[in-house]
Amino acid sequence: MNEDADELTYAETGVDIDESEAATAALVDAVGDLEGTTDYAGLVDIGDRYLGLATDGVGTKLLVADAIGDYSTVGIDCVAMNVNDLVASGVTPVAFVDYLAVDEPSEDLSQQVGEGLSAGASRAGMALVGGETAVMPEVIEGFDLAGTAAGLATEDDLLPGEAEEGDVLVGLPSSGIHSNRLTLARQAATREHAYTDPYPYDGSKTVGEALLEPTRIYADVLDPLHDHDIHAAAHVTGGGWTNLLRMGEYRYEITDPFEAQDVFAFVQEEGAVSDEEMHRTFNMGTGFVVALPEGEATSFTDEAGGRVIGRVEAGESVEIRGLSLT
Fold first, then answer.
1. Which helix (H) or strand (E) holds 179?
2. Which residues of the chain have pLDDT under 70?
3. Which domains are seen in the chain, by residue range?
4. Which residues are in the PurM-like C-terminal domain (predicted)?
């Protein structure tokens, strides 16, 4: 870590987490009772099945894309952030609709974004059914990209959503930072570097390209999820490893996490970010975690990949790499 640099935290980048959560709570309170929800998706009972819906955007990762003029991967991120939330609920994605808002139209931007959306939908095995492009120069500066994924699930497909004491934890590796908390990653990376500078860990790409590595899509684990007695799953997004607490109030003892990709070391070094802040903010190499009975673990990993990374115990924390996160 750069000992001479001031420590950078997510809050210090201009995003007040407490204020953000309070604003979200105010919106939910104003809306009133919701039809049906899991921790990751909305559910509507349509008779013999449930319609699952998830909506999300790409966030400030778009600023990296804009800075280097490479919009080819952000469509994949947009699909991934929605699809992975459906997967964490046991819902199979079937269709995706996007919303692209720009301050001025650009054929190049639209084409690259569209190609990324198409690639993401293909990886997720679902249909891309169009969307909306809005030109709003007085509202948008640059562009914004968001979308909604729709999926289907039977009662049996849906995950219970609650881990059990004694469960083992199976992790699946991430592809890098994914599309979460890029505000911190961007500000750390650009303290001493430009996005176009060579990336110190791989001279064949730039700093911007390292940050733009697209989010992994976990739709390929749906069949193994449905074939096994899975108790709960967590998509490790913003909030980092504290997302595991969404599977229930337990102690999640992580004994064998996947190694964090070098992009995390780069961000931590450049931003003088503490180990705790890194693990509260980023996935640190593991993008998806499943809680299941020990007897199911070998069969599940044979089918889905990944490996056993820990256990569920009594308590209420996430224990990883000498850190205790609550």
1. none
2. 1-4, 15-21, 23-25, 27-28, 31-35
3. 34-153 (3.30.1330.10), 167-325 (3.90.650.10)
4. 164-320
